[in-house]
Amino acid sequence: MSILHDKLTIEAGELRNKRTALLKEHGDKVLGSVTVEQVLGGMRGVPALICETSSVSADEGLRIRNIPILELTDISPEETFWLLVTGERATATELEELRKVFAKYYAVPQYVVDTLKAMPKDSHPMAMLSVGLLAMERESEFRAAYDKGAGKDSLWQSMVNDSVRLIASMPGIAAAIYRIRFNKGEVIAPLTDDNDLSNNFAHMLGVSDDASWKELVRLYLVLHSDHEGGNVSAMTSYVVSSALSDPFYSVSAAMSGLAGPLHGLANQECLRFIIDVREQFGGVPTDEQLTEYTWNRLKNGQVIPGYGHAVLRVTDPRFTAFIGFGEKHNLQDDNVQITHKIFKLVPGILQEHGKAKNPWPNVDAASGSLLYAYGMTEFDFYTVMFGVSRAIGLCSQMVVNRMMASPIVRPKSLTLAELGR
Predict the structure, then answer these.
(1) Among residues 230, 268, 280, 355, which one has the fewest Cβ atoms lying within 10 Å of its Cβ?
(2) Residues of the chain whose pLDDT is less than 70?
(3) Do 138 and 10 lie in a common domain?
(4) What string of DSSP letters covers 247-315?
């Protein structure tokens, strides 16, 4: 992977020097206090991680390498990875070379497909994704380099190689899971005349031949790729890789976190809510019907799925991008139309209700309805789609952390009695 190695060699030295200087000059500086509420509340808001690849602010949302995500909706997953790890936009030559390297790994090893086929027929797709990644761990150059005695200062290079292979293989693993788990027929081979990652993923899924489906897959992979370092999947991969576990172990662990209903599974819950609304009213409800339905849910102590976010206090710009996609392609599916209507009415109702800290939609409020509109109706697979995208950011963060020689993560824990004292 010489094109990235050459690009990152100087940056790796600079990152380490910057980290060393910060430790030497400011190592004893206090960043903030930690409250009992934060300790008992999942470390919410505690400044404790470094994430160079992206940031999320309450009043703006996601920035990738300090570029607002809405300025990146036309790029490819390959460009996203390059931007995340280098901090720069790829040139046409760099992008072409990177795509050639990715294309070498689009075809998933047969032993991985055989492993997936051997799993119980009712296995959850996310369990299959984790198993598929673990099966591929035998390919890890990072582990092989460490076993041969590579120094910690050079391990980032094999981390780059593993990351490229993992990201390139994920679409094929995911598509194989979709075909096997949902009885869609034979596993589809990657294209031989197209090095584009998202085009290959769309093709291997076999969901639609529509050009706009390929565009949706591309957009989906870009928008979900990274979301700073404190979310469950990112933090999990950060902790696991800090032990010098290779990317296959680390991303597999992260996928187990992504499978949780409070993280990546949320897009399924949002779509279930939308479909419940559609079935309740036999189609798209009127404004009056939806308003009454929303108020009844809130009075019964229920939430509106997809509305609110742990960090954001504005409309998630990724939601905005998905809504724009539906409008651009004039999608008339009932679920998409209900998504638009909910966005029109629900924030005002939540503000009037007064209990929601953030009445605005997050990305999960729109993503599922778009996948469903193109014929991907299998809810349990949606988080796998999320995982294929998120692997881009996870691997990028691992590469950068290894470049700066980040240490193992080992926070201090307390018993309730110690905390009480």
Answers:
(1) 355
(2) 1
(3) yes
(4) HHHHHHHHHHHHTSTTTTTHHHHHHHHHHHHHHHHTSSPPHHHHHHHHHHHHHTT---TTB--SS-SS-
Please give the order of strands across the beta sheet that includes 54-57.
54-57, 61-64, 67-68
Tokens read off for 406? 């980040």
Question: What pLDDT is stored for residue 373 in this prediction?
Answer: 96
* pLDDT score of 257: 96
The domain that holds 314 is classified in CATH as 1.10.230.10
What's the rounded Cα separation, in Å, for the pair 33 and 117? Answer: 51
Residues labelled as active-site residues: 263, 309, 364
Output the pLDDT for position 44.
86
Answer yes or no: do 10 and 122 share one domain: yes
- Average pLDDT score over the chain: 95
Both 102 and 55 in one domain: the answer is: yes
Give the count of beta carbons closer than 10 Å to the beta carbon of residue 105: 20
Instruction: Provide the domain limits for residue 161.
Output: 1-260+385-421
For 148, the token pair is 């041969």
Number of domains in the chain: 2
Same domain, 236 and 331: no
The helix or strand, by DSSP H or E, that contains position 219, with its residue range, turns out to be: helix 211-223
Residue 173 domain-assigned?
yes
How many other β-carbons are positioned within 10 Å of the β-carbon of residue 308? 18
Smallest Cα–Cα separation from 343: which of 326, 331, 359, 327? 359
Q: Could you read off the pLDDT of 195-205 as tens digits, one per residue?
A: 999 999 999 99
> Quick one: pLDDT at residue 36?
93
Q: What pLDDT is recorded for position 1?
A: 62
